[in-house]
């Protein structure tokens, strides 16, 4: 039952990805000003949204770990696995944002990068979570998970700053398409393509998030078995 | 197709390919990690 449910989800996700691509390339029209490069938005914006969501999951996991680490150690391990999975998959999506954005910028602005508020805060966000992953990879000892949880919480503080950056400050980055000033928004003929790609990338993200969580839980089980074997030897 | 449209097309394709290389590269790496974790668990 469980295996067939996973298989159905995988097939649905692949179908959604294909449908999203079809919408982005063949259904949505070219932008009047930007031409075809506007279509990069159909991968760029959903990737940013998924990254934000997964950093929020990492935040919840980090708080959960700190809350349960003494009272419910097993629950704390579950929370820690979610924190790590959210941070790592979030970094993958944030990397996509930081790669597709400059490709668009080179064609639209004539430059790969500029130190405006949106780009800089996004880069800082990526660097914080890469630091989080490096800490988890190279630090050892019982304090590692606690330190990582604290860093995960501080890292998440940058998410609202990234989101608000092109509302608070004048930026080279385009003004917000949704939830921006009066008159912002997207032509209805393009909204469908963006929404389908949003759904597709969320489905894809949840798939790899769940897989990363499973890997971490397996690693925790292996570490616990190893510790138990060392104690009984 | 004029030169600008060809360049637009190439940049769009580059962005889509980069996205899939990152995503599928990560998925492949995760698959290897999963296999190693399962193998360690059986030991």
Structure description:
The complex is a heterodimer of chains A (233) and B (43). Chain A has one domain (2-28, 37-174, 189-222). Chain A is built from 7 helices and no strands. Chain A has helices at 2-27, 41-68, 73-108, 117-138, 144-156, 158-168, 188-232. The relative contact order of chain A is 0.15. The radius of gyration of chain B is 19 Å and the shape is rod-shaped. The model of chain B has no long low-confidence stretch (mean pLDDT 93). Chain B has one helix at residues 3-42. Classes of the chains: A mainly alpha (233), B mainly alpha (43). The A-B interface holds A 34-37, 39-40, 43-44, 47, 89, 92, 95-96, 99-100, 103-104, 106-107, 204, 208, 211-212, 214-215, 218-219, 221-222, 225 and B 4-5, 7-9, 11-12, 14-16, 18-19, 22-23, 26-27, 30, 33-34, 37-38, 40-41.
Terminal-residue CA separation of chain B:
60 Å
SSE order of chain A, one letter for each helix or strand: HHHHHHH
Helicity of chain A, in percent? over 70%
Strand content of chain B is: under 5%
Number of domains of chain A: 1
Shape of chain B: rod-shaped
What is the C-alpha radius of gyration of chain A, as a whole number of Å? 20 Å
**Largest interface, counted with CB-CB under 8 A?**
A-B, 30 and 23 residues
Residue ranges of chain A: pLDDT <50 for 5 or more in a row?
none
Work out the helix count of chain A: 7
Described by strand count, sense and barrel closure, the largest sheet of chain A is: none
Average pLDDT, all residues of chain B: 93
In short:
The complex is a heterodimer of chains A (233) and B (43). Chain A has 233 residues and is mainly alpha-helical.
Features:
heterodimer, A: 233 residues, mainly alpha, 7 helices
Can you lay out the helices and strands and say which pair or pack?
The complex is a heterodimer of chains A (233) and B (43).
Chain A: H1 2-27, H2 41-68, H3 73-108, H4 117-138, H5 144-156, H6 158-168, H7 188-232
Helix pairs in contact in A: 1-7, 2-3, 2-5, 2-7, 3-4, 3-7, 4-5, 4-6
Chain B: H1 3-42
